[in-house]
Design goal:
Elements: H1 2-20, E1 23-32, H2 49-63, E2 67-71, H3 77-83, E3 88-89, E4 103-106, E5 110-117, E6 134-143, E7 146-154, H4 161-181, E8 186-192, H5 206-209, E9 214-215, H6 216-222, E10 246-251, E11 256-265, E12 284-292, E13 297-298, E14 302-303, E15 308-311, H7 313-316, E16 324-331, E17 335-342, E18 347-351, E19 356-361, E20 368-378, E21 381-391, E22 396-400, E23 406-410, E24 415-424, E25 428-437
Parallel strand pairs: 1-2, 7-8
Antiparallel strand pairs: 1-12, 2-4, 3-4, 5-6, 6-7, 8-10, 9-10, 11-12, 13-25, 14-25, 15-24, 16-17, 16-19, 17-18, 20-21, 20-23, 21-22, 24-25
């Protein structure tokens, strides 16, 4: 009972926050922490690697970046975490051969954390196939209605033909994943891309041409001009105008504008007590601002991170005043599908075809204003078992079977529910609601 009361209070607070908040800012850092075992690679970094890792963790805590992506976090991972204080941190996937070396430390919580291995690797210039490198994905909650899909990646190194072919495939794999799993969402891609714009064989531009991402360095330091001539950085770097392979790329969404306002190679902040470097890579820091638009918002997510991602955001972003006309749910023991028809005839349907249908047609001047979702486990996976919709005139529609683990999502005053986002299969795995003004 206590947990249900706390969840209800949190939902009320979230609605109040959603109604008031219109913008904010956050900081990010990406750093290759040179955590390969010393016996395999010194990374040309002086000092003891375990001590260096502990110092890196201390500096993460000192400067308090909101989201930190690290790469090559292999043999000395525990030393970084022992001295860091970020409240949300990914568990290690293991050292070399076992793990991918990528982790995230954050001031914000997330959902849908996933590790994805590269489909292609090369040992032409090194041992990239020795460990299961790839990328990670997580949906980070920065604030109410402000969810950002963060990607952490470490592509194949080297410049021989096989290296370039593998790296090209790596970038393409991430770009395709963004198209499928981040459709309509804000995105930040950070990590060791092993790529330079000045190398014609590298396809790092793909994130811009295919996914609509902007490179923070190109935007802030080069006024949007992509370089064609190589400019290598020293370490620690004495300028931000040179190019490193460590990059931060981003885009906003139809819910909020995202803008990089500051870029810096944070190298001079990450030095040993004697002034030597802690890594053979310059850490990259970027500050972002976000501002909510006046047309769309979203709720939090409920259910489990399973099934295929779907989102009505892109379709709703093209409409001036969307409003729900007909609600259609299907369910029996669990919630099988959710759908709605807008007043302009647009139909959104997600989930399977099982269960019994239930339909509610809204009257003139009537809006869908709140929803109750209940979740439980089925075949060891958390899913949505139940939904109840309530309109501005007190009419209701429900489907599925209620459980003891439920949450209420209420549109802010003057707003309404007009669409969905989440994950589905034969049933509703994860669900969130999209709001628009009445």
């Amino acid at each position: 009972m206590k947990s249900l009361i706390l969840r209800a209070l949190a939902a009320v607070a979230a609605v109040a926050s959603l109604a008031k908040a219109d913008g904010g800012d956050f900081s990010v850092l990406t750093m290759n922490v040179a955590g390969l075992p010393a016996i395999l690679n010194s990374n040309e970094v002086p000092g003891d690697k375990a001590t260096n890792a502990g110092n890196i963790g201390k500096l993460f805590a000192k400067y308090g970046y909101d989201v930190i992506h690290v790469q090559e976090d292999f043999a000395y991972h525990a030393y970084i975490y022992a001295t860091d204080n970020h409240p949300f941190r990914t568990p290690t996937s293991g050292t070399v051969i076992v793990g991918d070396g990528m982790n995230t430390l954050s001031n914000f919580d997330w959902v849908n954390f996933t590790r994805v291995r590269w489909n292609k690797c090369s040992n032409a210039s090194g041992a990239d196939c020795l460990t299961p490198k790839g990328f990670t994905f997580m949906r980070v909650k920065v604030a109410e209605s402000v969810y950002v899909d963060f990607y952490n990646l470490h592509t194949d190194a080297g410049t021989e033909n096989d290296d370039e072919a593998a790296r090209t495939a790596n970038v393409q794999q991430v770009a395709d994943y963004i198209d499928k799993w981040s459709a309509g969402n804000a995105v930040v891609v950070m990590g060791d891309t092993n790529s330079r714009y000045s190398r014609t064989a590298d396809n790092i531009r793909l994130f811009g041409t295919q996914n609509g991402l902007t490179d923070a360095w190109v935007q802030v330091e080069r006024n949007g001009v992509i370089p064609t001539v190589e400019s290598l950085c020293s370490n620690p770097s004495t300028t931000d105008s040179c190019e490193t392979v460590d990059k931060v790329l981003y885009r906003g969404s139809s819910i909020f504008k995202l803008e990089a306002t500051f870029f810096n190679y944070e190298s001079k902040k990450f030095l040993q007590p004697d002034g030597n470097i802690l890594s053979d890579h310059n850490p990259v820091g970027v500050n972002f601002t976000y501002s909510l638009n006046g047309n769309l918002r979203q709720s939090g997510y409920f259910g489990g991170p399973h099934g295929t991602w779907f989102s009505d955001l892109s379709a709703l972003a093209t409409k001036s005043k969307p409003a729900a006309k007909v609600l259609t749910f299907r369910g029996a023991r669990r919630l099988d599908s959710v759908g709605l028809t807008l007043t302009d005839g647009t139909v959104f349907t997600h989930g399977g075809t099982g269960g019994d249908p239930a339909t509610l047609t809204l009257g003139s001047g009537e809006f869908w204003t709140s929803a109750v979702l209940c979740q439980a486990k089925y075949k060891d996976r958390t899913r949505n078992f139940y939904i109840k919709a309530t309109t501005s005139k007190g009419n209701t529609l429900e489907s599925g079977s209620s459980t003891g683990d439920c949450a209420t999502f209420t549109a802010p005053s003057g707003w309404q529910i007009v669409g969905y986002m989440g994950q589905d299969g034969d049933e509703m795995d994860q669900l969130a609601f999209i709001y628009a003004p009445q």
